[in-house]
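[[Local backbone shapes]]
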Amino acid sequence: MATVIDKRPMLKKWGARTGPQFAGPLKQRVLLSGWPGRGKTTALLSIPNCLLLDFEWGESELPPVHPDTSARIQVTNYEQFAEIVDWLVNEARSKNPPFEAVGLDTLDMLGGSQNSLVAAYILRDSKVDAITAYGRNGLGWAMLTELFSRSLTRLVDAGYGLFMTCHLRRKMVENPDGSVTREVAHGMTARTSEFARSIASMACVLDTRVERRSEQRQMKMGDKVITVPGQAEEVVLHECIWNTELPDYKDIVKSRVPMPSRVVWTPKTWYEEFARAYEIGTKKVAEAVREATTESTTEVAGQEKGG
């Protein structure tokens, strides 16, 4: 019979962890995409213990849902943003982070386009007025991508959760047969979009749909009571789409945690619905791992007994 060595004491000494490990929902890095007016800013305002950095001044009259733990700053230039990032990182190093998460609204305006804050910072002392004309061989775009990615990486390395938004757009893609297909893409440059998707642990699309509803009412006709439809009204439903199998969003939505295809939320409950679905998803993963581990252990034990 093979000798079994208990490795757990040494693993515990070195701080090793076994089994699936999931940080809490506030520590995730979530990329929320959506067409204009679909509730991206409103969703970020529902996150507790979060500093929302607003780069496009969207829905400026709306306060955070959790004013006691969250705050909102309207950022007007890259220098201000860099100063805030320095403060957040330094506070995290002192083991006293002021927030658990940071919201970035939107990545397009921060550094994802030639009209972004990062682009304006690069061109501040330049004789050219477009990032495409700055330097040679795409130097302007390279600098923009570097400053953009470095800022986000510093926040992640400091231990903050990131909730990032960006717009969607339609792009024309030429097929091998010469035909043209319209696809949904992020409103950022290809490089910044690629980085945002790589740093995100989860990604979804926010959308809205209009549902026509009518309340039923009962009427008495002689000895019978019948149900008749009441006045119809249109109800706007906000949806959070996670399903990676949806063709329009196949390259945009992803999650390493199983999430429901669509979650209906109200303007003040996006984070609440997200956290609930995330907790359910992580439990499913943990249960699947435990079942697989139990089956494997039982199989090995049977082999040793038979040997």
